[in-house]
Amino acid sequence: MQIDIITCLPKLLESPFNQSILHRAKTKELVNVDIHDLRDYSINKHKQVDDYAYGVGAGMVLMIEPIAKCIEQLQAKRTYDEIIYMTPDGETFNQPMANQLSLKKNLIIICGHYKGIDERVREHIVTKEISIGDFVLSGGELAAAVVSDAIIRLLPGVLSDETSALTDSFQDGLLAPPVYTRPAQYNDWNVPDILLSGNEAKIQEWRLNKSLERTKTRRPDMYEKFKKDQMGE
Ligand code: ADE
């Protein structure tokens, strides 16, 4: 998979892609993430990429030309499945959307900043708008990192069998059950006996019950949907 991220603050994106699972995915060549500094596509020698909003005065808006120029150059190299714009008024990101996007080959992600981007980019160039939640970040960079992380960990070969994404919360419509590691006793806080029993069937049953219990109390909306879907099957 190829992910191209367009930003005017490339440094904000350096570290997330150079650590842990995302770094491993890059090393194994399962994904290639290129960060493009919008200033390299500026239309003048001042490296300007933003300007005052028409009719409002205050607040800077990212200009259409540098974004369009960067995207044209990328599109000359390959065809993109989606051109994504990170914005709080986009469609709310969730696991099904991560699953769908993980099946794509080439993605562009545009990070907004300041007051946003020229609306014409959204009208004519962007194919999908994503929000990571009902709050406003200073820019789309951290949101782009969140979305990329959720997608990349799903790519075949990125996670080992033991950490398979199939056992993640949300993947089967339930929250994941609790997990424990050594020591089996700390102070007088014990790991549940069943997990030490070696009885695989009983452990699976315990895990499912804990998942159901946790989903019912923490996410009643998910629990109701899960029950409805089960009845429909
Ligand atoms: N940019 C600023 N806030 C955002 C959010 N909540 N989701 C996606 N992009 C954003």
Write down how many β-strands occur, each being a DSSP E stretch of 2 or more residues. 9
How many domains make up the 3D coordinates?
2
Please give the share of residues in helix.
Answer: 25-40%
Discrete helix count? 8
CATH class value of the largest domain: Alpha Beta
CATH topology of the largest domain: Alpha/beta knot
Mean model confidence by pLDDT: 94
Bound molecules: adenine
* Assigned CATH architecture of the largest domain: 3-Layer(aba) Sandwich
Strand order of the largest sheet: 2-1-6-5-7
Spatial gap, N to C terminus: 34 Å
Molecular structure report:
The two termini are 34 Å apart. This protein has 233 residues and is of the alpha/beta class. It has helices at 20-27, 64-77, 95-102, 119-124, 141-152, 193-196, 200-218, 220-232, and strands at residues 2-7, 32-37, 50-52, 60-62, 82-92, 106-111, 128-131, 185-186, 189-190. The protein has 2 domains: 2-152, Alpha/beta knot; 169-231, Orthogonal Bundle (Trp Operon Repressor, Chain A), CATH 1.10.1270.20. Helix 3 (95-102) crosses helix 5. Strand 5, helix 3 and strand 6 form a beta-alpha-beta unit. It is built from 8 helices and 9 strands. The structure holds adenine (ADE). Adenine binds at residues 86-88, 112, 131-133, 135-137, 140, 143.
